[in-house]
Design a protein that fits this description.
The complex is a heterodimer of chains A (358) and B (553). Chain A is of the alpha+beta class and 358 residues long. Chain A contains eight helices and 19 strands. Helix content of chain A is 23%, strand content 38%. In chain A, helix 2 crosses helix 3. The radius of gyration of chain A is 25 Å and the shape is elongated. The two termini of chain A are 38 Å apart. Chain B is mainly α and 553 residues long. In chain B, the strands form two sheets. A two-stranded antiparallel ribbon of chain B has the order 1-2. In chain B, strand 1 and strand 2 form a beta hairpin. Chain B starts with 12 loop residues before the first helix and ends in an 8-residue tail after the last helix. The chains are: A alpha+beta (358), B mainly alpha (553).
Amino acid sequence: MSNEVIIRDAVKRYGDFTALCGVSLDIREGEFFTLLGPSGCGKTTLLRMIAGFNSIEGGDFFFGSKHINDVPAHKRDIGMVFQNYAIFPHLTVRENVAYGLKARKIPAAQIKPQVDEALDLVQISHLADRKPSELSGGQQQRVALARAFVIEPSVLLMDEPLSNLDAKLRVQMRSVIKKLQRRLGITTIYVTHDQEEALAISDRIAVMKDGRIMQIGTPNEIYAKPQNPFVAGFIGVSNFLDCQVEAPSAGEALVTIQGEMSVRVPVRRAYSGRARLSARPEQLFFAGEGMPATVLFSIFLGDFIEYEVQLDNGQSLIVNEYTKDTAAVHADGEKVRLRFDPLRISLYEDESGEVLSL
Amino acid sequence: MKAKLGSRWKPDFWFFTKLVVIVVMCLFIVYPFYTILTKSVFSNKVEGLTLYNFVRFFTKPYYYQTLLRSIVVCFATVFTSTLIGVPIAYLMTRYNIPGKKVLHIFIIMSLMSPPFIGAYSWIILMGRNGLLAKLFALFGATAPTIYGRGGIIFVFTLHLFPYIYLYTSGAMNSIDSSLEEAAENLGMSKLRRIWTITLPVILPSILAGCIMVFMTCLADFGTPMLLGEGYTVLPVLVYNEYMSESAVNPYMASTLSVIIVACSLLTLAFQKLVVDKRNYMMSSLRPPQETKLKGWKRFFAAAPIYIIVAFAFLPQIVVVCQSFVERSFSGMVKGINLNNYRAILSRLGTNIRNTYVFSLIAIVFIIIVGILVSYILVRKKGKVANLIDTLIMFPYVIPGSVLGIGLIVAFNRKPIILVGTAAIMIISYVIRKLPYTVRSGSAFLYQMDPFIEEASINLGVSPMKTFFTVTARMMLPGIMSGAVLSWITCINELSSSIMLYSGKTSTIAVAIYQEVVRMSDGTAAALATILTVTTILSLLLVFRLTKGKVKIV
């Protein structure tokens, strides 16, 4: 059986509230796929529908060619790592990991080597006979991982597995998870609200908002080419500027900002009117000419300096300048001019938020 | 001049509070129990220190039989209560049982009702002249007897299964649903999930409930006294021996008291060593969902609960009905009227007044001490606080009758003579019922942010004033809901009152017991109705105070 996950028009309702409005996804075999979005966007709801813990009000779910809408949760053959780990408190580490194998009525003689191997993979063999209350958060996390993949599931689901760990451990565990996933090649669906974590860990990301998918793409695509202002604002930091666009046809548009600076930006279709331009802080730079602005405040961060600058129309922008590219620090109150690379910014229609730039 | 630097210790308000609490507790808990201990190793048959009474207890069937019976009754009651309490807790927490909130209140009410009223009502129904017994006789059959071992276990079970229900449903509600989901996700079927995950995780709570049932059975005096009829259990024997010995030197009663407290301590040790260690702290992110049943399934899930709760609540209804029935001495119904109430008002007005006055005074003390002690236990942790904690909870393991005997032997001679006074009744109430308030108050205080107090002190209000204007006031809801429970158990208190009362200080509970023994059913029922109605009204007050989240256990 192929281990891809296909979701068509998934709908979830809680009374009058629609938590998911027709979501479709194709998750490839062996892929690390992340559902990313703010709380209440429906990402956990979708994950629990895949796991079989939430009823499905509409749409179809497939593992490969197998339709799983009506398969009960305990027969779906999915590994799952819960947000609070859900380690069985009355069982030892070993018994926790063996639990799913016992449920599959695997003979005891085969269970032991499999459990040993799983514990070894997450490097907690020395804790095998401990009770969960004697484990730290990171160790419990490893038990939860081992328990989920030891059953050799066709799909592995993870519901914000790192949210209960401190920052340092979070970074450490995320590479443990990533390496393990590569090694085992399990199709993995991961839920998080932390965009940095999503960028770091995923092969592809689906950014969600209000029960809809806003964009699907690789971390680089999502970061560099956000398809709407929401994604631009949610992933990383973006500066938004109001501008005027004149594009009689697809190809090149003349973009005027504040009536002062005009640049030529490649666009995908004809459009004339108001638009929003979004630029990352590291895509703005100081130059001899460009938009006139004043430095308000600077924060020295070692590898780069973060400036808060104010355009003459009053709008504030964040500009990052890498210390290796510059010698001097601009003083507060200094008059500067700002430019950007027209190929590295995004343009959106003002009303609909539809993307214009390529 | 060389000034000594560093901080100097100065006795503060809390130092004196701790001192007073410990002195009072030693005087009224440790000293009486110590007196019992010393009495137990003397005898009027042998000179000097002797284990004569202990030897007699363990060699004479008349004595040791009662211990065996007590143990049989306790274990049997724990078994049947678990059999009823756990499934009800499961159904009530996991399914959409209609009227679940009301059922919950009824279960709590049947637990808080005076224990002996259950026994008394079942005598009215199933006793020799009982209504059901007569009904059976009409059809030429014999009703199963309510007297003896079976009857005691039956009445105990209906009265005490709520403990198991409350502990179990508390655990069922705090178990994180992701545990069961994880088991489901790993491929376990529903029944095996309950067996391998749910039950083991809530087992410590079930055991804690079992221990409450066990201890209550072991200490209870009223029910086996009324129903035993020759099946004498240990607390009844304590009472009988005490009554037949001289009040100054109740040697055998003291020996029995020591034995019964030893049993309680053993049970408590089991709890500390086995049960508490396995308590699984739960971070309940996702509380369990209620499964929606429809039609027949819903009916069949609800029906057993309704039947059990009806049986458990039946005694209260029977008592209230009976109180309006006037009977002749032969038991014939003379009419339905208020004569029983007229009779008790003219004859037993003192008892009614005593019950409320004593309980009210006790409650005032309980609230004041409760606030101070809860604060010490939570915010002034240390060796002294631990000592106070142990002393406060000690009355849990001392049955009322034992505490009663202790107080009598301790305070029937100079320098302090309290026997026969109202003070000794009130003291026994305060000592015995304080734990309810302290537990509720300290649980409430645990959830209160200490920063609030620090903010007040930081703003320039002295710690003392902060305690009275901020902390104590914020603790009040927790203290009050505990105090109402203390109040309910005070007015219903029988086992220590029956030891301590004198002609002038008798209470309703004592009077009910005497009226039942005199076969004066009507007046007993009227008295019991007063208690039941007061209990129900007080409980409704707790429900209001706690917005339905009352914590009995």
